[in-house]
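Side project, low priority. Logging it here so it doesn't get lost.
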Amino acid sequence: MPASPRDLRLDFFRGLALTLIFIDHIPENILGYFTLQGVAPYDAAEVFIFISGFTAALVYGRVLEESGAFYATAQVLRRAWQLYVAHIFLFVMFIAEVSYTVLTVNNPMYNEEMRIGSFLSQPHLAIIHGLLLQFQPAFLDILPLYIVLLLAFPLILIGFRQSVAAVLAGSLLLYGAVQTTGLSMPAYPPGRSWFFNPLAWQLLFAIGAALGYGEVRGRRWTPRARVLLPGAVVIVAAASAIKLSWTVHGLREALPALFVNELWPISKTNLSPARLIPFLALVLVVGMLVPREAGFFRYRASRQLILLGRHSLEVFCLGILLSALGHFILAEFDSGIAVQLAVNAAGVLAMWLTAAIADWYKSMARGSSARRPQRGGLEEHVEPIEVGEHKGIGG
């Protein structure tokens, strides 16, 4: 099955999500008022998980069609292991960063704020639960979510082969059980639950995967969804107006917050329908109005975001460490607007340099592979699938 042309929208919006996650993770960041969380009831986390599901289905759905369920499952589990190793490395680096900061500035409050107090008080237990993905310090909760979703993905993918509708129905039933019963996954320390409840977020991942698998099977959803576009536009606009009123109300209490008593709180942990429905409406609007080869993808700024999206695992891990560092700098030294803008700019630049270096290494590896001698008319090294074309985290 020939690979479809690269969909630049995936890299662009994934790169944008990584940038927004970095900005949003810095508390009291002035730019946070201008990200999705300031103007919509959802944020970059939804973008991240949806695209991860979509791209996972593109990559491993193609493997399933070409090589069968066993090989596709092996490839998915291999990717889950790579993400697990990256998470553990990030976990250790994050603990070291926060611990060093606490000792340097003598501010033990960071232990609780960054949720590493349990590690310092009972490291022998915390490290075990960390390896089990149950101990999740601040900012380190989205990779465990994706790892768990990826571990379950072979069942989803194989189910798609039989009936996409049946898989989505089961996913929706599980999501409904979470909303009605509060079903959750236990975390560490005892009494806590996962910040991103996989039992709820699996629905968004499954919807993205269903659309991605449709691309693999040549069944694009946008023509059939055209009739829903006007309603989706209304939902996106109304949700944004309501959330924007809350943001403005937080800055000036005299200005009213629309429907705050009726809608608040909107659970991020359990992916409240008040988050999910407007986000899916946004997906429909973007899918219908932004073509694969949109002209703005040729702009310099767009190309930089696309570059970030192509190397999302490296960029994500660095962004987590940089956002914590940025928080410490602003809290301990100067939180003026000029310093905030400088911290944001420096962090985004560091993420871009990391992506550029990773891209250079990848181009060198491809060049080296192309120069290898051939045997029997075939290249000595043949990739079973160009996973760099369409990945989830780590694209």
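Brief comment: Confidence is low (pLDDT under 50) at residues 374-389, 391-395.
Revisit when time allows.
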